[in-house]
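thread: overnight batch results

M.L. [08:02]
morning all. the overnight job finished for the chain we discussed friday. pasting input first so we're all looking at the same thing
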Amino acid sequence: MPATYTRAYVREKEAKTILIQASEKLKLEIEKLIGSKAKIERVNTEFAELFLVNGKPLLARVDKDIFPTLVADEILKSLPKVVIDMGAVPYICNGAHVMAPGIVRFEGELRKGYIASVLDEKHGKLLAVGESLYDKSEAEGVTQGVVVRNLHFVGDKLWKILKETVAAGR
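M.L. [08:03]
and the structure it wrote out:
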């Protein structure tokens, strides 16, 4: 990692707090997915905190938003999904929010404020993680405007750090 990042293990009490916050935000029991004896490291960058759980970059916090990273497979599998058409892919990968016209379908129980995975319809590739602005029943009736606020996407600054971290086996 570049020298501008700081990295340190967090104490057990703080680790527990981080996992509780993530569990509440994601509406999942994170400890069941990652294990109760997980060791957590914090990587501070100029724009985000990245949390390595047992060496794998699973969670990130930007401002007050805590969310799974795009490499947190075990967490992402459990989240609701928003499937978008292929025409929306370049926009999402450039940081655009998920707009109603680009949505093909929803999978899972989506509620307002829930974190969701955003996937393309053709290959089912994970493109982004975002926060839903609507419940699923409301979102299905929306015809224009933002439905999911993009928090983290393929190609963003956090993604580049993740690629470095995963590639280096850190």
